[in-house]
Specification:
The protein is built from 12 helices and 2 strands. It is mostly helical.
């Protein structure tokens, strides 16, 4: 894992040395990572857009081969080969950011061992010092204890370096203050201690609860509308093909003597106009 986190730790340390602010270093780190991932995200988006353009043809195949899953799979595989599209490529490019996020989380969570490169013995010495002299209380299952220790080292920098040294320049004076917040402090609020009778408390909480629900409903409605539009487009193509076939039969009848005014052509034309009108209303 260290070979994965090493470049991210070096980059975060370099940005901190440049800005002198841990908060701005994290912000710039996110910008740099997004710039690196931009080509991969663009490729993923392009692949998904190409796949979405095939949705009307896929819907037509599903309608044509309804009840025959094997034939449907064969036709869809043939369609993907003809269009040179890999349906899994969009997901593949989307998975690339996950190792980067895991490595970044590890570097932020363990500044002493990952960002500063201190060994286990040095971390133990620093922990003992802040426990004895800075009031640090170790927690049994705390994933952020190194952040708290680094923050206490910053608050007692002269005393720590006077007693233990700077470990050959590896120990950093990390300033976790950013826009009025101390990013080194662990949140201690408990939701069950809130005064829920206060409107200023329960109203924002209700809004946060409703935001994902409303977002999911709107997304589902958009998907439903897109599916309806795709079905209308397929039906229009089908009706247009049928109308063209009937028109060809009327212009070149096999049995002219039996040729009667073709009501099917008129009906198909009416259906096509109705479907086009519905499609325009949905749009």
């Amino acid at each position: 894992m260290s070979w994965i986190t090493a470049p991210f730790a070096w980059l975060l340390k370099a940005l901190y040395d440049l800005t002198g602010s841990y908060g701005w270093a994290v912000v710039l780190f996110g910008v740099v990572v997004n710039l690196i991932l931009l080509p991969f995200m663009a490729k993923s988006k392009k692949s998904m857009m190409r796949t979405s353009r095939l949705q009307p043809r896929i819907t037509e195949l599903q309608r044509r081969h309804e009840g025959n899953q094997q034939k449907l799979n064969e036709e869809m595989a043939k369609l993907y080969r003809e269009e040179k599209i890999n349906p899994m490529s969009g997901c593949l490019w989307s998975l690339i950011p996950f190792p980067i996020l895991i490595a970044l989380y590890s570097v932020i969570r363990q500044p002493l061992t990952k960002m500063m490169g201190l060994g286990a013995e040095a971390v133990t010495q620093l922990t003992d010092w802040v426990t004895t002299n800075a009031g640090y209380v170790a927690q049994a299952k705390s994933a952020y204890q190194e952040i708290q220790i680094a923050d206490l080292i910053h608050q007692n920098w002269d005393a720590v370096t006077g007693a233990l040294g700077d470990y050959s320049g590896k120990l950093l004076d990390l300033d976790y203050s950013f826009i009025g917040l101390n990013m080194g402090q662990q949140p201690s609020f408990k939701i069950w201690t809130f005064d829920w009778s206060n409107k200023a408390v329960w109203l924002p909480a209700l809004g946060l609860f409703l935001i994902p629900i409303v977002s999911a409903l709107l997304s589902d409605q958009q998907d439903h509308d897109a599916h309806d539009a795709a079905r209308v487009a397929v039906d229009l193509l089908h009706d247009a093909g049928r109308a063209g076939h009937l028109l060809d039969r009327q212009q070149h009848p096999r049995h002219p003597a039996r040729c009667q005014p073709d009501e099917g052509l008129q009906q198909a034309a009416r259906q096509t106009r109705c479907r086009a009108h519905r499609a325009r209303k949905r749009a």
